Amino acid sequence: MSSLEAKQENEQELNLAAAAEYAIAYAKSQGMDESEVSLHHGTGVSVTARQQELETVEKHNDAQLVVSVYKDHKTGSASSADLSEAGIRSSVDAAISIARFTGADTCLGLADVERMAKDELELNLHYPWQKSVAEMVELAIECERAALQTSELISNSEGASVNSYAGSAVYANSHGFLSDTLGSQHSVSCSVIGEQAGAMQRDYWYDSNRDPVKLQSAESIGRRAAERTVARLGARQIASRQAPVMFEASVAKTLISHLIGAIKGGAIYKKASFMLDKIDSTIFPDFITIAEHPHLPGAASSAWHDGEGVATPSYRPIVEAGVLQSYVLGSYTARKLGLESTANSGGVRNLTVSSTGQDFEQLLSQMGSGLLVTELVGSGINMVTGDYSRGAAGFWVENGEIQHPVEEITIAGNLNELFRHIVAVGTDYDERGNTKCGSIVIENMTIAGS
Amino acid sequence: MNEQHFATAQATLLEPTGLSEADINAVMNRLTNVSGCDFADMYFQYSKHESWSLDEGVVKTGSFNIDQGVGLRSVCGEKTAFAYSEDLHAPLILEAADVVSAIGRQGQDLQQTRTWRKQGASPLYSAIDPIGAKGDAEKVAILERADRVARAHDSRVKEVMANLAAVYEVVLIVTSDGRQIPDIRPLVRLNVSVIVEQDGKRERGSMGGGGRHSFAYFDDAMVDDYAQEAVRRALVSLEAIDSPAGTMEVVLGSGWPGILLHEAVGHGLEGDFNRKGTSAFSGRIGEKVASEHCTVVDDGTLADRRGSLSVDDEGNQTKNTVLIENGILKGYMQDEHNARLMGMDLTGNGRRESFAHMPMPRMTNTYMHAGEHDPEEIIKSVKKGLYAVNFGGGQVDITSGKFVFSSSEAYLIEDGKITAPVKGATLIGNGPEAMQTISMVGNDMALDSGVGVCGKDGQSVPVGVGQPTLKMDALTVGGVQL
After folding, report:
1. Which helix (H) or strand (E) holds A351?
2. Chain B environment of A137 (Cβ under 8 Å)
3. Residue A333 to residue A324: CA distance in whole angstroms
4. Chain A contacts of B40, Cβ < 8 Å?
5. How far B7 CA sits from the closest chain A CA (Å)?
6. Residue A293 CB contacts under 8 Å (≥ 6 apart), including other chains
7. Is B74 within 8 Å of chain A by CB?
8. Which of A204, A229, A254 is the last residue of a domain?
9. Is residue A212 domain-shared with residue A246, that is, in the same domain?
10. Are residue A387 and residue A320 in the same domain, yes or no?
11. Alpha carbons B88 and B96: distance in angstroms, whole number
12. Which residue in A39, A321, B71, B301 could disulfide with B43, CB within 3.0 to 4.6 Å?
């Protein structure tokens, strides 16, 4: 990114705070009780190389304003990319018009004023990538080259991509809260195809980070993508059975995301969750602790306030020694449930899942014979009952040794049961994204195959 | 060519910032200023989106969004440069067009002056703005009615969630071969979802639909039907027993279960994957990829359907494209770029989520033609198997051909009779192999009710599916009961 682009960003950032204050003041002048506004502006570049040549270059430049107004416990919201004063007025007017027709609910409104975050923290979220488009293309080519050279079994490629994004975000509300944050996100990914005996397999690998220096090397990402693809060649279906299942770290985190989905306030107050009435209940074995760490410097989801301006804690346990401690609440859902906001408007931030100390190989040994799952497909999860049935691919394991790749099978059970029957969590953490979790071994699931 | 569409597009997209033909010409000259440029296009889009949501009997939230901008693209062999501008003033659009320098801009911009030809297919839907056409109070009343009807239908209904959404889009596509093509696209959708409870056991059921209509489409009878159907589905789930696990005969109902075709064959027949040779169907035109009972088409030309388009997002007329005829693979779905590189005909399948996304080959309405069997006859032919009539989502791995789709309403078939309802289970198979096992096709072809959203490379577009009742001799069912 050139220095000229960086300068434009700063100018825009000043405009965002001014735009936010203008929106709040205008809503007040129109008789609204309360209002809040989120704005962002960001620029980015995505490049893809395929078969060792540039394939696509995309430039992104996005701006958006989202405003919500409250009047007599009724709300409306509107959004637009038009950040001019006239554009802001039309968005606020549209939100006001909607609030005339929505129904009243005394739980609606801004988060409580005494919960507003007061101490801004420097969380190191912004690392612009000083790379030209040509250099990014070169990196993508290097990544794909490493994949293509890893094995003669790699026969084709979907290419390698390099993405870079940086921007600023402003949140303000009529309590007088205003925050202005710069952030960045960069990623490198690669997807290649292998062929053996006329059958093709594809797999991929990626890394993402706010700081480009911390990304895994393009070469290692390409190599890992190729190794994963080659390992899948010769995959076959296995016969239906009950067996232990080990979720590799990259897919283990999906189990944690199902838990979070089920303890979100919206699912709880609508009674649409398999985690209803489970506070203070044992939902996992006692070696499981799941916590969020919103203040980790440089982490994917770090923030000193949530999406409503509520101060985030530096540490919050969600599950402690297997017992569910609290739901995931913003101010609206908290009021609905007669509870306090957990500063989770906008989601949970930087989750960690405690391990039982074994590395990947030790987990395989502990499982003995069973299924190692490396990919999940489809969305067969009933969040009301916890019933779980998903397509899977991976490896059949005997006596702790991988035997052969497996495909075209499903794994099924009920999440309440699966959570209670976790037997180990590894130290082979996947640190990408919002959840840091190792591989998870589950005592028993139903595998459907031939 | 519809003059009124053109006038609306001009008034909505060009006149507010005073964009002239000369400005458009200058941007196009910049976009084509690349050595070996095959084509370039500009996609002007204005979109207005409104959504209302009800729960606990109250319409608590409503939101309104306006987006506009222009997407700019230059294509040169296999290379594509793409950028967009949310600001429709000429200097900013010209600046965004500089992205072509990344694929080899040459010297000064050409000074070619184009004579623009206004084009456009005859519209498949009315040029209405569904958001403006009905008052907000009437929209709220639709949701309140859905709530009332669902609760009145059965006392076990504990919660009703309903959502009403509308989109109004005006697009103008400008191509480097001198065409300007407008389209005006309404789209509405209503979803009703309920939670029922009995003896401490809870379940969910939902129903929805819509199309390229105004909100008038949701008359009282339709709203009542959606609400009651959502309740019926939830109540069936309350009674459901564990689903069987393993490979067995599977009968799929008509309509929305056509998601099978979308996943098992549709994606694998999109031109981009086949040009690159990454699809399990690559290089197989003329081969038998399904049983002789299967004829599958992608048809963007059906009036008022959710997946239909009068012209695709590259300005080309949509078509009724035969993908598989009597089991033989006939053709792929193409956009400009891939049709050109493969030397194949355009099929009007170039689609994009918005001006801020690049077009690629996408499905419209994908369905299977009717066969000759009475659906009851198909059920009767099964000794022990699964009858699945409703589904959640699906997914496919194009390369290995493995697809999944998750049932939300299914029953056991025992000795030719439909018996107990079973819990939702994921079905998994290999596209080209599974399609060969289709042994009976019903005479009850139906399209879905209009709720489909297809995701590819992070872009979502509305689609439709359909099929008659059909029997697959062997498909893996992902239940828990061995």
Report:
1. strand A351-353
2. 102
3. 18
4. none
5. 23
6. A299, A314, A315, A349, A350, A351, A352
7. no
8. A229
9. no
10. yes
11. 11
12. B71
Mean pLDDT along residues B50-63: 97
Residues A184 and A260 in one domain: no
pTM for this model (two decimals): 0.95
The closest CB to that of A380, out of B62, B78, B392, belongs to B392
Residues A216 and A279 in one domain: no
pLDDT (0 to 100) of residue A7: 37
Partners of B251 in beta bridges: B387, B471
Q: Where are the beta strands (DSSP E) in A6-80?
A: 34-50, 53-71, 74-80
For chain A, percent of residues with pLDDT exceeding 70: 97
Q: Are residues A171 and A255 in the same domain?
A: no
Give A 133-192 residues with CB within 8 A of chain B.
Answer: 133-134, 137, 156, 158
What is the Cβ-side half-sphere exposure of residue B224, based on CA atoms within 13 angstroms? 5
- Tell me which chain B residues have a C-beta less than 8 angstroms from the C-beta of A235: 400
What's the CATH code of the domain at A192? 3.30.2290.10
Q: Which domain holds residue A397?
A: 235-450
User: Looking at the structure, do residues A216 and A239 belong to the same domain, yes or no?
Assistant: no
| A430 CB within 8 Å of a chain B CB | no
Helices (H) and strands (E) in chain A, counts: 9, 17
pLDDT tens by residue, A96-130: 999 999 999 999 999 999 999 999 999 999 999 98
Q: What is the pLDDT of residue B104?
A: 77
Closest CA to B272 of B356, B398, B402: B398
Q: Which of A192, A211, A229 is the last residue of a domain?
A: A229
Q: Does B72 touch chain A (CB under 8 A)?
A: no
Both A268 and A391 in one domain: the answer is: yes
Instruction: Provide the chain A residues 49-68 that lie in CB contact (below 8 A) with chain B.
Output: 50, 53-63
List the structure tokens of B130.
């569904």
Same domain for A197 and A280? Answer: no
How many Å lie between the alpha carbon of A98 and the closest alpha carbon of chain B? 6
Task: Name the residue with tokens 């008052």.
Answer: B135
HSE-CB for A62 with a 13 A CA cutoff: 20
Strand partners, B435: none
Q: Tell me, yes or no, if B66 comes closer than 8 A to chain A by beta carbon.
A: yes
* Backbone φ and ψ of B347, nearest 5°: -120, 5
Spell out the alpha helix ranges (H) of A233-359.
Answer: 249-262, 265-269, 331-337
Residue of B nearest to A449 (CA): B246
Side chain identity, residue A226: A
The domain total for chain A is 2
**Average pLDDT rounded to a whole number, residues A237-265:** 97
Q: Which residue of B60, B164, B391 is the best one to mutate when testing the A interface, meaning the one whose CB has the most A CBs within 10 A?
A: B60
Structure tokens at B455: 């995701």
A196 to chain B, any CB pair closer than 8 A? The answer is no
Residue B275's nearest CA partner among B359, B342, B351 is: B342
